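Bumping with the actual sequence this time:
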Amino acid sequence: GGGDLGELGHGDAQRQSQPKKVEAFAGQRVVAVSAGRSHCLALTADGAIWSWGDGDFGQLGHGDKQNQLLPKKVEALAGQRVLAVSAGPIHSLAITADGAVWSWGSGSFGRLGHGDEQQQLLPKKVETFAGQRVVAVSAGVEHSLALTADGAVWSWGRGDDGRLGHGDGQRQLLPKKVEAFAGQRVVAVSAGGVHSIAITADGAVWSWGDGYYGKLGHGDEQSQLQPKKVEAFADRRVVAVSAGCLHSLAITADG
């Protein structure tokens, strides 16, 4: 892909028209990756986060705004074991082994969940989840989603078009539980550009937010201010979903 800001991790700004191994991880075992707009995150088997690419908004988590042409370990989380990462265009999220959420990068619209819109150059714990165990996070363009161990969905950041699922278009500077899922157990979430998707324990898909281009899957282009079940999957069990900017994907249990 494009490498202008070092987002490919090869130590240069060259674009690559074919996959090329990131040699910085020689001798390491990488267990997860997430690509933002022009930065990347990787998680190694020892629970460390590495980041590289564009650092303009502090989204690399190194305490500065420098671009990184090679993967660099996020030292602020040394001593923590990270279990999951998610890169948005200009912010980043992580979950540590104690179930805490950490966020860094651009804070505009409240997408970091700290109660303000400040930029964070280093990972900062999201205090709203104290006493909760978070099991999944997803960084959208200007909003974020989290899933707690009790099957609840939480959202924060920009709320236009209903992408937060609270029945309105208001921004949320702190994580807020999506009450529409009360009584349901959610098992997966994905935050797109201006929409969101979730899977419940019964294998149903729910979507909400901006409906333009039909990306919510309801047979129209209407926006939804609250989660709405995608009826096209009525006879199927969905096991994974991914929300892009203008489209959505799902995998069913039959593969």
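The tokens above came from a reply further down the thread. The mean pLDDT is 98.
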